[in-house]
């Protein structure tokens, strides 16, 4: 194997590695400022200079590739001198605002200056007077920018947004938006995390608390099932900022949507309806009321008159404890919220793979030769999956084909982008297989050349496609031997556990709606479920819930669905409690308590325990006990204790690929209304994060308001006010924000 000598010691390397790559792998320190391991190097800062034998001047180690026998020296007198000069050159333009800069205490430039022993400016200069930009959630002060290009590279190569660029040249150049207007991106804030100075800052955090006063807590984001790690900075039990952790990224939800715990609709204490109004009571009174009513209903109508609806934002432990409670009460009618959301797709999925769980792991996406994104607006449905796709395309040269109801923001990276007019995805699959049109011939060529193919199916497909088996027949066409992974997207974190722990499948939303309508369900207990006022069983449940004799809502908020409940029990949020959930690819992740609750709420696990205790049942009252006694080693979950869960364990899963019998049937052309997540929002919880705080001195807005604009494609009829025509939307399609 080839060798390189660094400071006279030999090190092996692989072709394509830079001097800096080898040095870092072997714990040899070389200072950097512009370098990031996740992006292509730029060599902009010139702080990573090293001396290479045979080359007159020092070279940037981040862009100099190793060759066999190369001799490198990292700390010669000339190298150290040149590095210091380059740092002083950076400081010529940089304002000396450290005492008032929000980045102080975690600034790479500040730390490197101290490291190099620079205590004062060697060259006095007039500092630049460049513009400052307000980009909604992000503030950009161009005067502080050191032009390392990290933000531009990250935005292009990791997120796929390509929303930033370098404008002008020389002394006047600056980072600005690609369109020279507002920032149009995913607002993941990775540019802020990777900025080595204070040029890019989170607007809600600016001028609030000094970094060294913050206590940081690392946990797992609970907005979607990807399971990204996130770090929250808090002071005096208030969260002021959040950021990515090493080897993990976060989206706008994980970064900015954490203030929902302070929303005015938060249920702060148990509520019981009396004289037509919900009134505050103690927990003992609320639990006694539930026990008494359950006894009465069972005596009059039997156990079969009680039903549960369990949401998939509940933790593994909460799902199990509610299920144990239902079993103890003799209740068989347990409905997963997944049963309200296109259960026909999930049932077909099970028929195809003999499992509800996705095929493959998330890392399989970036290792694929060809990726099909089918009706999945990843910017709204799963940024974590989008980043895997971008990584595959940009760094692994994977082919990308998108089939959707709109042109996605990352269309620039696609090899083929097709609109499914009238929501007829099945026709697109049919044309890929049969048409002699060049774009379809090209896609067939990609399929023939690829050895590893991944599929990502999303909300647009589930909402619009009437022949839902068509995508599984398309997998048959591609071939089982080439199938690397198959993912469906979802906007709640614990969809996999709802399948694995037996919550889904025994009793359907259709059956529940029918039983309520016929008066067979007299008591409905709903935990963490909000049916949007959209269509189908969501709307039917909202219309019929008033027929239920006794309605118990276990929720974070008062809303237009549970306002008619007989009892509302306040529950702790993921930020105020702990537990585990199962990611989309079966990884077991733990979330930690970030802040102490400042209201009279309890965890879902404890609520199930209290109701069970009142009924004479023995349930566990803590997540650790539920995991260790009810989940560990069962249903494919690892035989590891709660304390051993470290985010690296996966549950076992098995699948078979069965052939789907299907023949395409031409569909009538007409308008299809499709409900989607509003931009930057995920289901219901994020809408409560958009709060404002005002005082005599400051105004802060936390998170984005819901944009309820309705967009339509050509040949679509829209009866909703404020519809706007968009040429990037498929024909016959109306996209309606459900939030």
Automatic annotation (TrEMBL):
All residue ranges annotated as the 4Fe-4S ferredoxin-type domain in the record: 135-169, 175-205
Annotated source species: Deferribacter autotrophicus
Matching CDD domains: fer2 (cd00207), Molybdopterin-Binding (cd00368)
InterPro entries: 2Fe-2S_ferredoxin-like_sf, 2Fe-2S_ferredoxin-type, 4Fe4S_Fe-S-bd, 4Fe4S_Fe_S_CS, Mopterin_OxRdtase, NADH_UbQ_OxRdtase_75kDa_su_CS, NADH_UbQ_OxRdtase_ferredoxin, NADH_UbQ_OxRdtase_Gsu_4Fe4S-bd
PANTHER family reported in the protein's UniProt record: NADH-QUINONE OXIDOREDUCTASE SUBUNIT G, RESPIRATORY NITRATE REDUCTASE
Molecular function terms from GO: 2 iron, 2 sulfur cluster binding; 4 iron, 4 sulfur cluster binding; metal ion binding; NADH dehydrogenase (ubiquinone) activity; oxidoreductase activity; quinone binding
Gene Ontology CC: membrane
SMART domains per record: NADH-G_4Fe-4S_3
Lineage: Bacteria, Pseudomonadati, Deferribacterota, Deferribacteres, Deferribacterales
Intracellular or extracellular location(s): Membrane
Name the record gives this protein: 2Fe-2S iron-sulfur cluster binding domain-containing protein
Gene Ontology terms describing biological process: ATP synthesis coupled electron transport
A Pfam family matched in the record: Molybdopterin
Domain 4Fe-4S His(Cys)3-ligated-type: 78-117
Every 2Fe-2S ferredoxin-type domain range: 1-78
Keywords: 2Fe-2S, 4Fe-4S, Iron, Iron-sulfur, Membrane, Metal-binding, NAD, Quinone, Repeat, Translocase
Family: Belongs to the complex I 75 kDa subunit family.
Cofactor: [2Fe-2S] cluster; [4Fe-4S] cluster
Gene3D superfamilies for the chain: 3.10.20.740, 3.30.70.20, 3.40.50.740, ADC-like domains, Dimethylsulfoxide Reductase, domain 2
């Amino acid at each position: 194997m080839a060798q390189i000598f660094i400071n006279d010691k030999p090190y092996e390397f692989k072709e394509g590695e830079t001097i800096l790559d080898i040095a870092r792998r072997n714990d040899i320190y070389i200072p950097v400022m512009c370098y990031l391991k996740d992006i292509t190097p730029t060599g902009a800062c010139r702080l990573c200079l090293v001396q290479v034998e045979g080359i007159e001047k020092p070279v940037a180690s981040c862009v100099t590739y190793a060759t066999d026998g190369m001799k490198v020296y990292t700390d010669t007198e000339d190298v150290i001198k040149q590095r210091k000069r380059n740092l002083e050159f950076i400081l010529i333009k940089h304002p000396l605002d450290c005492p008032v800069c929000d980045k102080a205490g975690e600034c790479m430039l500040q730390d490197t200056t101290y490291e190099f022993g620079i205590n004062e400016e060697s060259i006095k200069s007039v500092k630049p007077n460049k513009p400052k930009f307000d980009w909604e959630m992000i503030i950009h002060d161009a005067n502080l920018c050191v032009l390392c290009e990290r933000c531009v590279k990250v935005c292009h190569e990791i997120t796929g947004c390509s929303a930033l660029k370098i404008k002008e040249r020389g002394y006047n150049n600056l980072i600005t938006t690609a369109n020279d207007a507002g920032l149009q991106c995913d607002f993941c804030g990775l540019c802020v995390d990777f900025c080595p100075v204070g040029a890019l800052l989170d607007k809600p955090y600016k001028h609030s608390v000094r970094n060294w006063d913050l206590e940081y807590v690392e946990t797992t984001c609970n907005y979607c099932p990807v399971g990204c790690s996130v770090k929250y900075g808090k002071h005096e039990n208030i969260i002021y900022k959040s950021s990515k952790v090493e080897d993990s990224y976060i989206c706008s939800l994980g970064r900015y949507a954490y203030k929902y715990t302070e929303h005015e609709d938060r249920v702060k204490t148990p509520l019981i309806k009396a004289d037509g109004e919900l009134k505050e009571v103690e927990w003992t009174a609320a639990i006694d009321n539930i026990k008494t009513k359950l006894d009465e209903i069972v005596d009059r109508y039997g156990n079969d008159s009680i039903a549960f609806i369990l949401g998939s934002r509940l933790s593994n432990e909460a799902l199990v404890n509610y299920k144990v409670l239902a079993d103890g009460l003799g209740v068989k009618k347990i409905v997963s919220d997944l049963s309200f959301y296109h259960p026909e797709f999930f049932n077909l999925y099970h028929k195809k793979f003999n499992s509800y769980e996705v095929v493959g792991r998330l890392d399989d996406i970036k290792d694929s030769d060809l990726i099909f994104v089918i009706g999945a607006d990843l910017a709204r449905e799963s940024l974590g999956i989008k980043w895997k796709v971008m990584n595959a395309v940009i760094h692994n040269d994977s082919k990308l084909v998108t089939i959707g109801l709109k042109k996605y923001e990352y269309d620039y990276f696609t090899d083929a982008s097709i609109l499914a007019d009238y929501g007829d995805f099945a026709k697109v699959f049919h044309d890929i297989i049969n048409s002699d049109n060049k774009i379809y011939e090209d896609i067939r060529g990609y399929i023939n050349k690829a050895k590893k193919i991944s599929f990502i199916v999303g909300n647009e497909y589930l909402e619009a496609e009437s022949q839902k088996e068509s995508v599984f027949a398309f997998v048959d066409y591609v071939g089982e031997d080439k199938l690397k992974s198959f993912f469906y997207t979802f906007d709640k974190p614990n969809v996999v556990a709802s399948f694995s722990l037996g919550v889904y499948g025994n009793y359907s939303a259709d059956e529940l709606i029918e039983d309520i309508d016929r008066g067979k369900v007299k008591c409905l207990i709903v935990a963490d479920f909000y049916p949007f006022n959209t269509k189908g069983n969501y709307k039917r449940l909202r219309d019929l819930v008033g027929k239920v004799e006794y309605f118990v809502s276990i929720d974070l908020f008062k809303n237009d669905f549970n306002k008619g409940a007989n009892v509302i029990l306040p529950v702790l949020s993921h930020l105020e409690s702990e537990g585990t959930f199962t990611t989309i690819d079966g990884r077991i992740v733990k979330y930690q308590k970030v802040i102490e609750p400042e209201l009279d709420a309890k965890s879902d696990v404890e609520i199930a325990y209290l109701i069970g205790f009142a009924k004479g049942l023995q349930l566990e009252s803590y997540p650790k006990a539920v995991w260790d006694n009810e989940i560990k080693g069962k249903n494919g979950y690892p035989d590891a204790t709660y304390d051993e869960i470290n985010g690296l364990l996966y549950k076992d899963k098995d699948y078979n690929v069965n052939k789907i019998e299907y023949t395409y049937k031409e569909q009538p052309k007409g308008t299809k209304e499709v409900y989607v997540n509003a931009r930057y929002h995920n289901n219901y919880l994020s809408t409560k994060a958009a709060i404002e705080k005002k005082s005599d001195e400051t105004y802060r807005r936390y998170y984005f308001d819901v944009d309820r604009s309705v967009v339509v494609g050509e040949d679509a009829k829209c009866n909703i006010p404020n519809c706007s025509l968009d040429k990037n939307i498929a024909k016959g399609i109306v996209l309606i924000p459900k939030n």
